[in-house]
Amino acid sequence: MRVRSPRTHRFRRFLITLFFSLPAGHLAAGQTRPGGSQEGIFLVFPFENAGVRPSLDWIGEGLEELTIQRLSAAGQQVFSHAGRLIEMDRNGLPSSTKLSRATMLHIAQEMDADFVVFGNYAPGDNDVTVNVRVLRVNPVALLPEVSEHGPLASLMDLHTKLVWRMLGSCDPNYPLNLDEFSKLQRPLYLGAFEQYIRGLLANDDEARLRALKEAARLEPLWPDPAYAIGDLYFQRYDCPAALPWFAKIPPAHARSVEAVFSIGVCRLRMGQPEKAEEAFTSLQDDIHRNLVSGADLPEILNNLALASARQNKFDAAMAALSRARDLDPDEDDYPFNLGLLALQKKSLTTAAAHFSEAIERQPDNAEDRAFLIYVLDKLKKKKEAATQREEAAEILGEKELPLLKLDPKSPEFFAKYQRLKRELDITSLMLQLEGPQTLNNSSAETGTPRDAAVAHIRRGRQELGAGRLDLGEQEFRAALATDPHNASAHRELAEIYRRRGKLDDAAQELQLSLAERDSAVVRTVLARIYLEQKKSDLARIELEKAVKLAPNYPEAKELLEHLEKSKPTGGGK
Question: Contact 167/74 with Cβ under 8 angstroms?
Fold first, then answer.
């Protein structure tokens, strides 16, 4: 039995941690960055409260977010808060965990970061001291501490100077003076920023909304609270309330892509396929116009196809869905939607082929199997339908096949079952927006072997995200030619092999990656490959090692539990 990963797809698992925070304003191809962009990517952790006032704990998360914004506005590459949390989750670390420097370094190595930023703050009655340290990843070195002290009310200006001095400690030749650096930053009222951070940290939706709306009131031209409010309503399926807030996000903002995508989703939900098509088409055109390679994103293609299908534009819908299916070889939603379109066109044989592919991608999806059985019955293929029912009983266990209330003559029937993508994985887009400028300007030939290897890996990930396996493989091999012991290059090559069905080669590359750097995530991926090869004993060994490395890593724990409960799937050695 082929075991599939959860919704976070395997080939994106390595990429998602490269979720960058963009500078203010999307960069068109060839556009230069503001200021003097230093080579390397920063990873920022929350600052610790070294004082005795728990009411100011929000400042720790706030300084992380503010540091990300300051670095990004100055043209630096920096991982987002979301990217850090995803990587911590992959390692089984709760977001609130206090991390040692060794753990931060390990996370940075997993993410291929170049600099780790961490620090603390000590608030007094009316003043505050903020300290920041930078840990260089390779070669490992802890740079001198940078400190700033001043009135608490001047925290925003104090922090701007702190980050500027920090960049100078990383690069003695940093070209911007304080005035030039400050002009790149967005002026923010401290009270608005506090409300924004408190809103993000609030556990209750209503408390979150109150704080975010207060931040938006205090800084009406600041898009970040508006996006957060729109996203909160969006997650609550309240599209009429979400749309006005998403409309406030300017095209140059880092979250504009997600805002427009959410607007398109809302339009589909509200029965407005023409407006949805307009939103998704504009998004697609913008990506093609502004990015070096014009890469497509499968979620956009999927939803664009659904908008087209609901207007009876079936050829355009089929073309977009086929491209989405090819870009993401693990997701079953795309072949499933293709099957629905074929069923709507009364092409039963084609529909059966698409539903079969969906099942191959995710064997335990009951709805995929129910539709395949329905089509096989319509084709009067009783033997094949019976086989599918037997397999469903074996794989699904107590989980029964859903009862399909089908009326293929009704367009509403197809809209009911179509799988709309609610979330946009913009990892590959971020790589496109952030990658080319640094990669084209980096001196791979004159830098260290690791610098050159990292440049090749980032280019390779860009190609992999766009579905160009041959070009991705070239870059990963170039990385290994420069740095033969690069664990990241080996694990990326493994993904290339896996997507080509070369599982033995994929397993070998993952083993080489583990020989250079142990990782619970890589061991879990290796376990999945062993399961695809029906080597359950080897898979169990890898999962046990993964859980030992990261006891709270949910994916390894869940897969190990699944393996313990299931019947043996084959030889292990």
Answer: yes
Burial class (CB in 10 A: 0-12, 13-18, 19+), 568: exposed
SS3 of residue 391 by DSSP = helix
Q: Are strands 77-78 and 41-44 parallel, antiparallel or unpaired?
A: parallel
375, two tokens: 């089509």
Determine which of 14-23, 39-48, 230-239 has the lowest per-residue pLDDT on average: 14-23
Residue with tokens 């780790």: 116
Residue with tokens 């659904």: 306
Enter the pTM of the model: 0.79
Q: Are residues 431 and 453 in the same domain?
A: yes
Q: What are phi and psi of 380, to 5 degrees?
A: 60, 30
User: Given this model, what pLDDT does residue 448 score?
Assistant: 67
Could you list the residue range(s) of the whole structural domain that residue 119 is in? 33-186
Give how many domains the chain has, as a whole number: 3
Shared domain check, 131 and 46 = yes
d(CA 12, CA 461): 9
Question: Quick check: bond before 123 cis, omega within 30?
Answer: no
Angle, helix 256-269 to helix 298-309, in steps of 10 degrees: 30
**Helix, strand or coil for residue 128?**
strand
Summarize pLDDT for 190-244 with one digit per residue, the tens. Answer: 999 999 999 999 989 999 999 999 999 999 999 999 999 999 999 999 999 999 9
Q: How confident is the model at residue 349 (pLDDT cuts 50, 70, 90)?
A: very high
Q: What's the rounded Cα separation, in Å, for the pair 509 and 522?
A: 10
How would you classify residue 501: left for phi > 0, otherwise alpha for psi between -120 and 50, otherwise beta?
Answer: left
